[in-house]
Amino acid sequence: MDTTSRLLMLLEVVEQGSFAKAAELRNIDRSVISKQISRLEDELGIRLLNRTTRSFSLTAAGAEMIKKAAELRELLGETVRMAENYHLEPRGVLKITSSTLIGRRYLQPVLNDFQKRFPQVEVELRLDDRLVDIVSEGFDLAFRVGEPKDSSLIARKIARNRLLIVAAPEYIDTYGMPKTMEDLAQLPAASYASNSIRIDAIDYYNSKGEPCEQKIKSVFRANDAESLLMKTLSGTTYFVAPAFIIGDEISQGKLVPLLTDVKLMEFSAMYAVYPHRDLPVRTRLFFDAVREHIGKDKPIWENGIPNFEQMY
Description:
This protein is an alpha/beta fold. It has helices at 3-16, 19-26, 30-44, 60-84, 100-117, 169-175, 181-185, 225-233, 281-294; strands at 49-51, 56-58, 92-98, 121-127, 141-145, 154-161, 163-167, 188-192, 201-205, 211-215, 217-222, 238-242, 256-257, 263-264, 267-274. It folds into 3 domains: 3-81, Arc Repressor Mutant, subunit A (Orthogonal Bundle); 92-158 and 269-300, D-Maltodextrin-Binding Protein, domain 2 (3-Layer(aba) Sandwich); 163-265, D-Maltodextrin-Binding Protein, domain 2 (3-Layer(aba) Sandwich). It contains 9 helices and 15 strands. The strands form 4 sheets. A 5-stranded mixed beta sheet has the order 4-3-5-15-6, covered by helices on one side. A hairpin with a 4-residue loop joins strand 1 (49-51) and strand 2. Helix 1 crosses helix 2 (19-26) and helix 5 packs across helix 9.
């Protein structure tokens, strides 16, 4: 391993926060990384890290080396992208990450067709509901609901993602059809909850167009949209659902939209996120294919919701 490779390895250790996480990312033993960092220090003749048994900190020299390593990674990336764009036929590895639901339902059909068209492109698809660091983990594209907070990343809107309130017919038989938001507030609901987000209210506009908030009575919480949907299909809760998780449940009569005359605030749109403006050919072509498949003006997930344009 040369000095450049060891510098990039040091950068990964710092970005991941530990030797163990960097080793997991590379699928190698922690001791390998530790030895390579020690050799880098020997080569440069300076100490880069102050290590303890459980943690490390950068020395002043190490902090400067990290800046240079980040610049080096960017330069190497630009060089590779420039070379790839001279290929007439897309090739190489396309690394993509998304949530599990988006990947299975909306990206997989595009990937299948894409590799038929461009067989020299290899694909690595990471389905993960946690927010990954696409730069340090080397992803070309990430598909996310909601615009990223990291201003260094480039985000392009793929499609809108409206909300609707749904319940199973059995639920309506049990609790009756709610007539107002106040009625709904008294009924058992399913809601999304994770370490970073907890949904406990419905945001909507009243008859005057003023923003309002209605607290809900959540009796079931999960950090997985499909689990919330399954709970709602059981007839025991209603659910304020993002449209992209709805399949054919409404058209088949398994779910019924509630309070369709209420104007709900739009949910976070779906975005494609990437680290560089100068996309390799394979990445740009796949991005275009996804956008075409999903549809810009009317996203594909709204096709299974009859008369959705007149709701909410």
